Fold this protein.
Amino acid sequence: MLNSFKEACIMDNKHKNDCIKCSVAQCQHNMVTENYCSLDSISVGTHEENPTVPECTDCNSFVKRTGCCD
Ligand code: SF4
């Protein structure tokens, strides 16, 4: 699966954003090979009323990669 993600990144001609590290390979904005996001900026939010740990936060710019996670 990782190889097809890499190929998709190359085909999309994405460029990594050095300021946004991310290892979520299932997101179509992820570079996969380098654990970086390709967006210029992202939106981060929370699903908790009172967030206290990193797990309480979410990347709201996440978009499921086509063909992934079915
Ligand atoms: S949009 Fe969010 S989840 Fe997707 S690669 Fe960028 S930082 Fe990661």
